[in-house]
Amino acid sequence: MQIRKAVITAAARGVRLYPAADTVQKAMLPIVDRDGLSKPVIQIIAEEALESGIEEICIICAPGDEDAYRRQFKSLHENLLASYRGADWAQEQAERLSNVVGRLRFAPQHNPHGYGHAVYCAREFVGEQPFLLLLGDHLYVSHLEGKRCAQQLVDLAAKESCAVAAVQSTREHLVGRYGTLSGKRLPNHPGAYQIERIIEKPSVSQAELELHTPGLRAGHYLCFFGMYVLTPSVFAILGEAVAATQDHADVQLTAALQELAHRERYLALEVEGSRYDIGTKFGLLQTQIALGVAGKDRDVVLSMIVELLAHSK
User: Fold this and answer.
1) Taking residues 110-137, what's their average pLDDT?
2) What is the CATH number of the domain that holds 148?
3) Which pTM was predicted?
């Protein structure tokens, strides 16, 4: 199985990033990446996919946002070349931006009916191919040198020819924030599980009763990492949910993933890496620090943090 397409859901504005997200898509907010270049968030996410073997990317956006994205990308590219002429970093960023923009397609989510509905909007782009699904407000730092988090996921999906969800062992008091699952470990596949049960944001007591996974540390559960390789079968399941849902109700992805696990082989992989959600309170700050500490400016960032702590009271 080859995974050549990716979908990035980026239709939501981002309440916690107000007022910035009220004037620009949160996926276009700037952040300094590990290579020291300042980039829009969406570019960093796209590069995660492209460096993992993806060739085409579809952004699920709010109606009218495609023109805004393309206009901003064009403006960024032109300003880099005109205003910073002769600067090596500007030339590098302009080239990277051109590569990303040339791979992008867009699909509008005309009605905000939940995450599952947003994914369903990509069905024409995906067609009958497996695809990588990423969130428009999650950035990732791999703990494996030279191998992106998405690449770890894509490699297992290609090898096993089935859907795979990235997961992370998570302490029990945090399970209420994430989709949480249970499964059986696969022999000869470290960190891989056959998914059995999925519950969206369970309580601790519910997780204790229904989501225990043998082999995990006590008080830990497998929670979604915000990254998936899915087969096109998920669109038939989502289509059934969309057809059965009343006009203003949300279509959630978790229920569709549970049904997918019933219908076909669906694995989970503990990814060697960390996820960062820019949409949470102080999430943009935490993400910037994490990227800085993991990148070429590590020593500078650590010195700044030490200095800040030394002067705090």
Assistant:
1) 95
2) 3.90.550.10
3) 0.93
